[in-house]
Specification:
The chain is mainly alpha-helical and 328 residues long. The protein has 2 domains: 2-175 and 292-322, 3-Layer(aba) Sandwich (Rossmann fold), CATH 3.40.50.620; 199-287, Orthogonal Bundle (Tyrosyl-Transfer RNA Synthetase). The chain has helices at residues 15-28, 40-43, 50-67, 84-93, 98-102, 105-112, 119-133, 147-164, 209-217, 235-248, 252-258, 264-290, 293-322; strands at 2-7, 33-38, 74-78, 139-141, 172-174. Strand 4, helix 8 (147-164) and strand 5 form a beta-alpha-beta unit. The chain is globular and about 75 Å long. It starts with a strand and ends in a 6-residue tail after the last helix. The chain binds tryptophanyl-5'AMP. Residues 4-8, 16-17, 19-21, 39, 42, 128, 131-132, 140, 142-143, 145-146, 149, 180-182, 191-192 line the site of tryptophanyl-5'AMP.
């Protein structure tokens, strides 16, 4: 089992990133060879401030470590440190059709919000496929919003193999049963996202305890009183219950029973304390790591070296299979 996943350094990470992705990364490192990258080339598909991007890249890397990924067991690296990502992204882009990319819902959503759309934003899924196939990954832990990109990756792997000979395993998405789609605290019909203009919509992993409490206190609920997990009819309360289930390691059924006769105020209080307790050790480790930037740089250097060796191996096969002449 070889696992690859990535997170964009396009803003501060939030509970959705943790519960949907990062938490799974930590669990997987005991069972599989793991590679986790900070996908800075993906972040560049929309305009970024250069200094903020560098800062954010280091912050995401430090959160990988703070969440519990052990660099002795998993490679942690920055996507742009392994140039083969961009090369394979181009080659897979040549296998991918305009129609396929146009159908990506994340592209449609993001493109709809802006006046001008970069070629990079359109080609984004081909680069994501390259991230995965470059390491011949068998499994990809992600949140639910990446499902369609994973389907495209699988199609591209199969297409490549059919045209050029067996080269890539067809990777499987690993999407958790709970936590794969954490919703906005202000609008339960939208996912929690780094880019929402309303900071109250998300709990960020580096929010202070008071910020966490304040955001959860003003989270929307509904006009009823009953605490029940029913995403269709009670999306806001169900979202709070799901976050609490994961943060407190209890099942939804246990929680539902516990809250019979209790009100939303109590649920929010308990949720806030559970989230504060969940984030506290992660934040303490993150503070230590930010005080030791050389350590973080060394981890990223070592990760890139390992990733690069695997990437070179794959690219030799890919170039030959596609008919590129080898340089002497
Ligand atoms: P990104 O940076 O938007 O998000 C990182 C991870 O967090 C998950 N996620 C969520 N999970 C649950 N609830 C939410 N509200 C929520 N929001 C985000 C995402 O599903 C993701 O797993 N395209 C990817 C980055 C990427 C990648 C890859 C992932 C690039 N190359 C290769 C896997 C493999 C993205 O934009 O994730």
């Amino acid at each position: 089992m070889r696992v690859l996943s990535g997170i964009q350094p396009s803003g501060h990470l939030h509970l959705g990133n943790y519960l949907g992705a990062l938490r799974q990364f930590v669990d997987l490192q005991d069972r599989a060879q793991c590679l986790f990258c900070v996908v800075d080339l993906h972040a560049l598909t929309v305009r970024q401030d250069p200094a903020a991007l560098r800062q954010s890249t280091l912050e995401v890397a430090s959160l990988y470590l703070a969440a519990g990924i052990d660099p002795q067991r998993a490679a942690i690296f920055v996507q742009s440190h392994v140039p083969e990502h961009a090369e394979l992204g181009w080659l897979l882009g040549c296998l991918c059709t305009f129609g396929e990319l146009q159908r990506m819902t994340q592209f449609k959503d993001k493109a709809g919000e802006r006046e001008s759309v970069s070629l990079g934003l359109f080609a984004y899924p081909a680069l994501m496929a390259a991230d995965i196939l470059l390491y011949r990954a068998s499994h990809v832990p992600v949140g639910d919003d990446q499902r369609q990109h994973l389907e495209l990756t699988r199609d591209l792997a199969a297409r490549f193999n059919a045209r050029h000979g067996e080269t890539f395993p067809v990777p499987a998405a690993l999407i958790g049963a709970v936590g794969a789609r954490v919703m906005s605290l202000q609008n339960p019909h939208e996912k929690m996202s780094k880019s929402s203009p309303d900071p109250r919509s998300r709990v960020e992993l580096l929010d202070t305890p008071d910020q966490v409490r304040a955001k959860i206190r003003v989270a929307v609920t509904d006009s009823e009183r009953e605490i029940r997990h029913d995403p269709e009819h009670k999306p806001a309360v169900s979202n709070l219950l799901e976050i609490l289930a994961l943060a407190s390691s209890q099942s939804l059924a246990e929680l539902q029973e516990h809250y019979v006769g209790l009100g939303y105020g109590r649920l929010k209080q308990d949720l806030a304390e559970a989230v504060v307790a969940l984030l506290e050790p992660l934040q303490a480790r993150q503070r230590e790591l930010s005080a030791a930037p050389d350590h973080l740089r060394a981890v990223l250097g070592q990760g890139a070296e390992l990733a690069h060796a695997l990437a070179e191996d794959t690219m030799r096969d890919v170039r030959t299979a596609m008919g590129l002449l080898t340089a002497r």
